């Protein structure tokens, strides 16, 4: 068995596609009417479809999982984030863990938690 994709729920799918392209360079592979598959295996699904499948409300900022990205030039990434999305909601601004890794955590426009860290090597 192989993990194929990770799906996140979004309110405005085109806005989210642009967000993940702007910050992480993810490109659109397939647009299937409320489901978008991006490069690196990230799938965006329209909130209305997800609610219909689940029959439950979506809970943004639930902090139960995160998307993790690595970036060598984290300073440049932080500058890009602040320039393109100045009103982004941070969990923590750029910090350095005791083991030396620099990380930043924030929510995407739909409350999905994202962490960007320097490579652990």
SSE order and pairing:
Blueprint (H helix, E strand, L loop, with lengths): L5 E5 L2 H12 L3 E4 L3 E4 L3 E5 H8 L12 E4 L3 H11 L5 E7 L5 E6 L5 E5 L4
Parallel strand pairs: 1-4, 5-8
Antiparallel strand pairs: 2-3, 3-4, 6-7, 7-8
Spatial ordering of strands, largest sheet: 1-4-3-2
Structurally, how many domains make up the residues? Answer: 2
Helix run count:
3
Low-pLDDT runs of 5+ residues are none
What is the CA–CA distance across the termini?
27 Å
Question: What number is the mean pLDDT?
Answer: 96
In CATH, the homologous superfamily of the largest domain goes by the name 2,3-Dihydroxybiphenyl 1,2-Dioxygenase, domain 1
What's the story with the biggest beta sheet? 4 strands, mixed
* Topology-level CATH name of the largest domain: 2,3-Dihydroxybiphenyl 1,2-Dioxygenase, domain 1
- Which shape, going by the Cα principal axes? globular
Q: Approximately how much beta-strand content do the residues carry? A: 25-35%
What is the class of the largest domain in the CATH system?
A: Alpha Beta
Which sequence of SSEs, written as H and E, runs from N to C? EHEEEHEHEEE
| Share of helical residues | 25-40%
CA gyration radius, whole angstroms: 15 Å
CATH architecture of the largest domain: Roll
Specify the structural class: alpha/beta
Q: Total strand count, please?
A: 8
Q: How would you describe the overall organization of this protein?
A:
It is globular, with a radius of gyration of 15 Å. 12% of the residues are buried. By secondary structure, it is of the alpha/beta class. The chain folds into two domains: 1-58, 2,3-Dihydroxybiphenyl 1,2-Dioxygenase, domain 1 (Roll); 60-121, Roll (2,3-Dihydroxybiphenyl 1,2-Dioxygenase, domain 1). The longest helix is centred in the first third of the chain and has 12 residues, at 13-24. The strands form two sheets. A four-stranded mixed beta sheet has the order 1-4-3-2. The two termini are 27 Å apart. 26% of the residues lie in helices and 33% in strands. It is built from three helices and eight strands. A hairpin with a 3-residue loop joins strand 3 (35-38) and strand 4.
